């Protein structure tokens, strides 16, 4: 029987009886949401009050809150709220009449005595003040149940109750609680908070919650919010597969961020791994990997989407939304490419199930070739190894050559930034394509690096820099490069029209891009200025010498 059906049955069977029901579950699972939804779907004419124990510091405060906030859902005449609220105003205020001194506490007591035949919900036990004893709260709940014929609901996470209070709670639980409703799933909360999201994606979140045993809705609130943020950055019309991969990457990122240590799963585990290579893994890590793979293959599958999302979660930089839009519009999410992905997944299942046939290697080769540029080098290396393992060295060599050709083309056009992206999960010395790309980078270390004037503009104009690439450019800049920048580049570049050379040079001479390079940079710049002064006419010479003097101040 579902929790809401069980609770409805409890209320039906105890319609005119006092009772106490505990709604329990882990923190963030949606206990309060469950209760509020139940009330909405099962209207009751009884008076009702919701009591958050957070902020209440005495039994007197608790009683005052109960009668001053009680709601009358029937048509009977009730005490006006302004009268019920008097004690909270007059608390501890002495009133003298006919020579007799009395306290607002008397009024407090009289009003509380009127509370009967009501539904009273106590919540936030975990956040209860240490000035309020749980023994007093449970005792009051018991009094309301037995003496006032009230139906009491207690919403709590027993595991979060403080040790001393936990002992007292256990002591009273047996005497007070008649029924217990355990909330173990965040599914209702997820479904209620995902309007406008495709139904299969909602199902994916629910399955993720169940298989990974994540019962904290605050986790999914973050996921839903970030998913929406990324979707907003893309064209209005995107394929379902694009939405799915974005949701998977967001789930993945927050999972690693919030639960990675506990579940023994990190960014480096997002790859295809032979079972024999998992033998040194902990049981928890193996279970996590298999659970993620069963939910969706993309959870253990690296691609360009993963590279961009990892940037966000590592807080290195914002993802390249232009690149993400390109991916969304490219054949990466086309039906054709989706079919290729499905074919690769089917082939992976074939060998795992001992079902490969004579066409397996050819099909694997064909599908792998179509995915060059979209698969991670980890996956491509894995497909290459499978071809070798299953005896087709010829196809393995052809695949290797095609991948290396693509790597060379991309490196020549984009340089070191391409290497950074491909090695964002670390350099793998056993991966032949990582080795090849590293060799390219070693042989052509300055390929694709920004120009000296470009990094100076970004630094002077926007106070921005890339600590890796910019350091390489500064380190390799020659005296001739600095001369060209100072006496040609800055003058001709429209972006510098709002800056004067003295200000630009001052900023360069105190740059923070790489402090260790400062002596080298300063020496070259002053040499350039000295040389230029020597070959200039007397007037210009004095101008340059004065600038040098100001720069050295």
From TrEMBL:
Domain KAP NTPase: 16-72
Signal peptide: none
Gene3D superfamilies: P-loop containing nucleotide triphosphate hydrolases (3.40.50.300)
Entry-linked SUPFAM superfamilies: P-loop containing nucleoside triphosphate hydrolases
Superkingdom in the source lineage: Bacteria
Coiled-coil boundaries: none
InterPro entries linked to this entry: KAP_P-loop (IPR011646), P-loop_NTPase (IPR027417)
UniProt-recorded name of the protein: KAP NTPase domain-containing protein
Gene source species: Acinetobacter lwoffii NIPH 478
Biological classification of the source: Bacteria, Pseudomonadati, Pseudomonadota, Gammaproteobacteria, Moraxellales
């Amino acid at each position: 029987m579902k929790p809401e059906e069980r609770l409805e049955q409890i209320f039906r069977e105890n319609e005119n009886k006092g009772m106490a029901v505990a709604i329990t579950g882990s923190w963030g699972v949606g206990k309060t949401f469950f209760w509020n939804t139940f009330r909405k779907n099962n209207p009751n004419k009884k008076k009702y009050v919701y009591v958050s124990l957070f902020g209440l510091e005495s039994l007197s405060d608790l009683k005052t809150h109960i009668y001053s906030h009680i709601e009358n859902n029937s048509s009977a005449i009730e005490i006006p709220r302004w009268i019920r609220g008097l004690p909270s105003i007059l608390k501890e205020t002495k009133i003298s009449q006919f020579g007799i001194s009395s306290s607002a506490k008397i009024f407090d007591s009289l009003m509380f005595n009127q509370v009967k035949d009501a539904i009273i919900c106590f919540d936030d036990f975990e956040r209860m003040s240490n000035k309020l004893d749980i023994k007093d709260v449970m005792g009051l709940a018991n009094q309301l149940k037995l003496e006032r014929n009230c139906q009491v609901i207690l919403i709590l996470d027993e595991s979060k109750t403080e040790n001393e209070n936990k002992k007292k709670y256990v002591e009273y639980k047996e005497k007070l609680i008649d029924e217990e409703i355990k909330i173990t799933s965040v599914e209702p909360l997820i479904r209620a908070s995902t309007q406008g999201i495709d139904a299969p994606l909602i199902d994916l979140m629910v399955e993720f919650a169940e298989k990974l045993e994540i019962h904290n809705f605050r986790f999914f609130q973050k996921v839903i919010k970030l998913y929406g943020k990324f979707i907003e950055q893309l064209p209005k019309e995107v394929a379902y597969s694009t939405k799915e991969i974005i949701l998977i990457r967001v789930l993945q990122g927050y999972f690693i961020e919030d639960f990675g240590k506990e579940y023994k799963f990190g960014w480096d585990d997002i790859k295809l791994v032979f079972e024999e290579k998992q033998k040194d893994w902990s049981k928890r890590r193996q279970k996590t990997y298999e659970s993620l793979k069963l939910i969706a293959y993309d959870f253990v599958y690296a691609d360009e989407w993963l590279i961009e999302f990892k940037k966000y979660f590592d807080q290195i930089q914002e993802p390249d939304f232009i690149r993400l839009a390109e991916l969304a519009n490219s054949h990466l999410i086309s039906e054709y490419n989706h079919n290729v992905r499905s074919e690769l997944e089917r082939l992976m299942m074939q060998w795992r199930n001992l079902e490969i046939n004579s066409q397996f290697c050819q099909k694997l080769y064909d599908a792998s070739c179509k995915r060059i540029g979209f698969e991670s080098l980890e996956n491509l290396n894995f497909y290459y190894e499978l071809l070798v393992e299953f005896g087709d060295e010829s196809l393995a060599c052809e695949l290797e050559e095609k991948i290396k050709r693509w790597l060379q083309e991309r490196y020549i056009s984009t340089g070191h930034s391409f290497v950074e992206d491909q090695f964002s999960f670390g350099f793998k010395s056993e991966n032949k394509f990582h080795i090849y790309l590293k060799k390219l980078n070693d042989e052509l270390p300055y390929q694709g690096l920004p120009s000296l004037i470009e990094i100076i503009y970004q630094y002077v104009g926007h106070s921005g820099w890339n600590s890796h690439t910019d350091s390489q450019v500064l380190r390799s800049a020659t005296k001739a490069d600095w001369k060209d920048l100072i006496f040609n580049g800055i003058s001709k570049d429209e972006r510098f029209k709002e800056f004067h050379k003295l200000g630009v040079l001052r900023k360069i001479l105190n740059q923070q891009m790489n402090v260790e390079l400062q002596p080298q940079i300063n020496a070259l710049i002053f040499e350039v200025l000295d040389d230029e002064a020597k070959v200039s006419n007397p007037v210009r010479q004095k101008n340059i010498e004065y600038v040098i003097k100001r720069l050295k101040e």
